[in-house]
From TrEMBL:
Source organism of the structure: Enterobacter cloacae
UniProt cross-references to Pfam families, sorted A to Z: GCS2
Protein name: Glutamate-cysteine ligase family protein
Top-level taxon of origin: Bacteria
Nucleus among keywords: no
One GO MF term: glutamate-cysteine ligase activity
SUPFAM superfamilies: Glutamine synthetase/guanido kinase
Keyword annotations from UniProtKB, A to Z: Ligase
InterPro entries in the cross-refs: GCL_type2/YbdK_subfam (IPR050141), GCS2 (IPR006336), Gln_synth/guanido_kin_cat_dom (IPR014746)
Amino acid sequence: MPLPDFKSSEPYTLAIELELQVVNPPGYDLSQDSSALIPAVKDDIKGGEVKHDITESMLEIATGVCQTIDQAAAQFSVMQQSILRAAAEHHIQICGGGTHPFQKWQRQEVCDDERYNVTLERFGYLILQA
């Protein structure tokens, strides 16, 4: 399955994307609850999007195409506040992306997405360690 082309945009524009981990306090192990957060923030997000990123323990937030850094920062701020509110309501927390220090890759659930499922078939457990 080939990767889709990037959407074209006007010159000198920008967008910001960030992957976040969903964790359970108090031990901060990865949580498989990103699916609960996405619908909880959907109505708050007017610019950009919040979606899954490979596993149920990750969220991807991305601004829309912006003309200025201030516009991107404003979109990002709305997303951040909305995600933190929804996480608190679901008794989970959010932390920065990267490799989780003590995650068990065997417990990671890949999101139900054709692209992620094809990647899982090709690369096996490596995708679960992302």
